[in-house]
Write a structure and sequence with these properties.
The complex is a heterodimer of chains A (109) and B (114).
Chain A (H helix, E strand, L loop, with lengths): L3 E4 L2 E5 L4 E7 L3 E9 L5 E6 L3 E5 L2 E6 L4 E6 L8 E9 L6 E2 L3 E6 L1
Parallel strand pairs in A: 2-11
Antiparallel strand pairs in A: 1-3, 3-8, 4-5, 4-9, 6-7, 7-8, 9-10, 9-11
Chain B lengths: L4 E3 L2 E4 L5 E6 L6 E7 L6 E7 L2 E4 L8 E4 L6 E5 L8 E8 L8 E2 L3 E5 L1
Parallel strand pairs in B: 2-11
Antiparallel strand pairs in B: 1-3, 3-8, 4-5, 4-9, 5-6, 7-8, 9-10, 9-11
Classes of the chains: A mainly beta (109), B mainly beta (114).
Chain lengths: 109, 114
């Protein structure tokens, strides 16, 4: 089945720092989403981005579908950015959203 | 508008008991999904409904798990003869048409089997 690997697995930042999270996937996708799971467990949609680039405030994302990876950029990080970031994909050969391994981010003041 | 809601938020039960978990999708969304998330892991797919029918139930772990969506809106996940290994957070999501669309997740039901 499809492999969805995220890196780094853990990231510790001081408030104000920038970071890049990566998601590699092993098959062509027709849906890719980035989520933030906050410390209370709620999965919050960040981006729907099967291809191209999007920006929303301090966050932006880029998916290069032909090379099978996506990047999530967080600028000027805040303590409220802490939590786990997941990418999730649907491929042309599956009927389900497959989640990646996640990146756990901790932002300290 | 209202998001996906799930009830109860927490459920504690004893091994061997039957439980029902409810999901109210976003109004008008035809696709509904159930996932299970164990501690430290990402969500894992259980079942996908398109309208009233299960389009893909390949993620249900065994025949103790069953889900229905009789009117194409609210869905209930049913677990018979619960086991301690069933303890997890059960998440529901909905999307407007199908798998290619954005999925929106509910807050989850934390199930604990003693």
């Amino acid at each position: 089945g499809i492999q969805v690997e995220q890196s780094p697995p853990d990231l510790i930042l001081q408030e104000g720092a920038n970071s890049t999270l990566r998601c590699n996937f092993s098959d062509s996708v027709n849906n890719l989403q980035w989520f933030h799971q906050n410390p209370w467990g709620q999965l919050i949609n960040l981006f729907y981005i099967p291809s191209g680039t999007k920006q929303n405030g301090r966050l932006s994302a880029t998916t290069v579908a032909t090379e099978r990876y996506s990047l999530l950029y967080i600028s000027s990080s805040q303590t409220t950015d802490s939590g786990v970031y997941f990418c999730a994909v649907v491929t042309y050969n599956t009927d389900k959203l497959i989640f990646g391994t996640g990146t756990r981010l901790q932002v300290f003041p | 508008g209202a998001g996906v809601s799930q009830t109860p938020s927490n459920k504690v039960t004893e091994k061997g008991k039957y439980v029902e978990l409810r999901c109210d999708p976003i109004s008008g969304h035809t696709a509904l999904y159930w996932y299970r998330q164990s501690l430290g892991q990402g969500p894992e797919f259980l079942i996908y409904f398109q309208g009233t029918g299960a389009a893909d139930d390949s993620g249900l772990p065994n025949d103790r798990f069953f889900a229905v969506r009789p009117e194409g809106s609210v869905s209930t996940l049913k677990i018979q003869r619960t086991e301690r290994g069933d303890s997890a957070v059960y998440l529901c999501a909905s999307s407007s048409r199908d798998l290619v669309d954005t999925q929106y997740f509910g807050p989850g039901t934390r199930l604990t089997v003693l």
